[in-house]
Fold Geranylgeranyl diphosphate reductase, chloroplastic.
Amino acid sequence: MDMPKAPNSPYVLHYTSYDSKTNGAGEKCTLEVDAVIGADGANSRVAKSINAGDYEYAIAFQERIRISDDKMKYYENLAEMYVGDDVSPDFYGWVFPKCDHVAVGTGTVTHKADIKKFQLATRLRADSKITGGKIIRVEAHPIPEHPRPRRLQDRVALVGDAAGYVTKCSGEGIYFAAKSGRMCAEAIVEGSENGKRMVDESDLRKYLEKWDKTYWPTYKCLIYCRSILQVESSKEAFVEMCADEYVQR
Ligand SMILES: Cc1cc2nc3c(=O)[nH]c(=O)nc-3n(C[C@H](O)[C@H](O)[C@H](O)COP(=O)(O)OP(=O)(O)OC[C@H]3O[C@@H](n4cnc5c(N)ncnc54)[C@H](O)[C@@H]3O)c2cc1C
């Protein structure tokens, strides 16, 4: 990404265009744009381009396991979270249903080298509910733990994992990625008066202000929950709290 050479001149993006029919090495292309939304995930190149700074991250490990239709019925309206030092000292293990298979995984910030040990423990916890299943995919990826120090520069803004919007404790990031992408796009549409004027940093800042106002209380609450989850003796209290209907809502 080449930065603008003058205040209102465009960003130039360099990319490779692939044609799925010819399967070749692709064609080098450029694209000139007025604004850039960095929605390129935890290892964001756009974030690097604007020196957005780093964040603390968790590592998540997940196995997609195809289980029998009978076993799948158990997970029809249910997702499982396991807490305890065996599955993760500071996060949780999970079994999440994914349409025709389950995702079994765990994460940690503090003990990344032990992730495979925690994964084994998570599988043992789910035990009979997944035995006989076939592992169809293994995934490992960083999960941001905190927004980046910088999420905006001139006409470049970051959203989703690129910005660092996964919530602590729950590890939820899909909703916040989609929501922040939409909010940022809306700020650009509004600031540009539907494409009639050039946006500037103050237009994109409206997205950040709206975002922080709407979601910062949620993040604060989950940062607190996370501190409970990190202490073995208070994990049961956390589980009890999650059983509360109000908390679930
Ligand atoms: C194992 C695991 C399990 C998870 N489970 C959940 C869950 O159950 N619920 C939940 O809410 N969240 C979950 N998360 C978090 C969630 O996946 C992310 O928060 C979410 O996907 C972030 O969306 P995103 O669009 O910001 O980034 P991504 O989903 O990472 O998408 C970024 C996209 O940009 C593309 N890209 C990157 N660089 C370039 C480039 N240079 N050029 C072109 N394209 C590029 C990538 O290929 C990718 O398609 C999980 C994460 C992990 C690792």
